[in-house]
Design brief:
Number of helices of chain B: 3
Strand content of chain B: 25-35%
Shape of chain A: elongated
Helix content of chain A: 25-40%
Oligomer: heterodimer
Order of helices and strands of chain B: EEHEEEEHHEEEE
Order of helices and strands of chain A: HEEHEEHEEEEHH
Largest interface: A-B, 33 and 33 residues
Shape of chain B: globular
Number of strands of chain B: 10
Strand content of chain A: 25-35%
Radius of gyration of chain A: 24 Å
Number of strands of chain A: 8
Chain lengths: ~210, ~190
């Protein structure tokens, strides 16, 4: 009898212990990281301005991320910085004859020999959250681009939006990957077109190579 | 119940011609038209909620470059001022974050299924509203001759600001690349309205 009583007490303690952990998880929630930002840049036609460009990747850009709740208990972080940097460099090399990439902490190798400086900053990364898995989910990334001339004056600024949509579905991480892939594709395609069609940049470059 | 669970969809605001806006002006080649959104029905239609009751005044802005040189339109250089010159502030999208929390954000579902669905619906609507505010916001960009840009700015308006008829929109427009600033100012609400 005593043996059974001690077993029941042990089991009760265990149940209380696990219940306490579940309540803590319930109250605090879980946090996780999804690495779904597209690393492979889209293919862009090479139409190069005859310009030497310093592409400056700021720490703010490299640290860019989306963070939000995907359900009442789970907070997700989606790092965007590395993908933004890779896509930015790829786009710059498609558009300009000579590109030097400058990351935080690096000194410029060419000094002031660059014709122009290209920088960007993420303005917003937003995602909707449909009520059910059958609802359409939209992911939007907005980036502001600035081109400075050799005197440090702004020559061209544009804020570009990229969006991706899919049903939220049963596999939200997979669908986040699809949405961010589409958003990045639209973002960099639109930025590429904006730079290519800019009269201000054409004036500095003289002509396309 | 299923209809109530439908995701909120907010339409784009259709941009009309410059002449159709009652509050408009042109200065040194830059045309500016503004339209504050004041009616609850209009706010519900385009923003999903009565932003005014949350202390946010959305103002639609349309810039057209009728000049011969490029100018810079920056959302950070547009302010609301009173006729006495008192500066009421620049637009700040972070007000939408406080709005989202006002709406309940993502609520923790506790209890019955209808309550869970209601919580999910509130959270979904809050996200949709926040997303919509970001997408509709006026963006910083250079405007080449003949180019047009438009979007909304969101101003925090307290009850003390009350009467909006004494408010003016003041935009600082920089020339590119010289950086020369010109100021454009016009009444938020045209006296004709």
């Amino acid at each position: 009898m005593m043996k059974y009583r001690s077993q029941i007490l042990t089991a009760s303690k265990r149940i209380s212990h696990y219940s306490f952990i579940c309540i803590c998880i319930f109250l605090i929630g879980c946090s996780t990281t999804w690495n779904v930002a597209p690393e492979k840049p889209l293919v862009l036609a090479t139409n190069q301005f005859d310009l030497q460009v310093r592409l400056v990747l700021s720490q703010e850009l490299l640290d860019a991320k989306w963070q939000g709740k995907v359900d009442p208990f789970t907070t997700v972080q989606i790092p965007l910085g590395a993908a933004l940097a890779a896509h930015s460099e790829h786009m710059a090399r498609a558009l300009f004859r000579d590109v030097t990439v400058l990351r935080p902490g690096q000194n410029s190798v060419n000094g002031d020999n660059n014709d122009v400086v290209l920088t960007s900053k993420i303005v917003s990364a937003e995602r909707t959250q449909p009520t059910t898995i059958y609802g359409q989910q939209t992911t939007t990334v907005i980036v502001e681009w600035t081109l400075l001339d050799s005197k440090g004056r702004a020559v061209w600024i544009d804020t570009i939006t990229g969006q991706g949509q899919s049903k939220m579905g049963l596999y939200p991480e997979k669908n986040a990957e699809l949405q961010f892939s589409a958003a990045f594709e639209q973002l960099f395609k639109n930025c590429y077109e904006s730079i290519l069609s800019s009269d201000e940049i054409k004036q500095i470059a003289g002509k396309l190579k | 119940m299923l209809a109530a669970c439908a995701t909120l969809h907010l339409p784009d605001y259709p941009v009309n011609s410059f002449q159709s806006y009652s509050s408009r002006t042109t200065s040194q080649g830059v045309a500016l038209a503004v339209k504050p959104f004041l009616e609850p029905k209009e706010l519900e239609s385009y923003f999903g909620t009565d932003l005014r009751s949350a202390g946010i005044l959305p103002v639609f802005m349309l810039f057209e470059n009728h000049g011969n040189s490029t100018v810079l339109v920056s959302k950070d250089s547009v302010t609301l001022v009173s006729t006495s010159g008192a500066h009421l502030g620049t637009a700040n999208l972070s007000t939408s974050e406080s709005l989202a929390s006002t709406l309940g954000g993502i609520a923790i579902a506790i209890g019955s299924i209808p309550m869970m669905l209601a919580s999910a619906k509130i959270g979904s609507d809050a996200k949709e509203i926040t997303h919509n505010l970001a997408v509709k916001e006026l963006r910083t960009k250079t405007l080449a001759p003949s180019a047009v840009t438009s979007g909304f700015l969101y101003f925090a308006i307290s009850e003390n600001n009350g009467d909006l008829e004494h408010l003016h929109v003041k935009a600082s427009i920089a020339g590119i690349p010289d950086g020369n600033i010109q100021i454009i100012e016009l009444a938020l609400i045209s006296k004709g309205e």
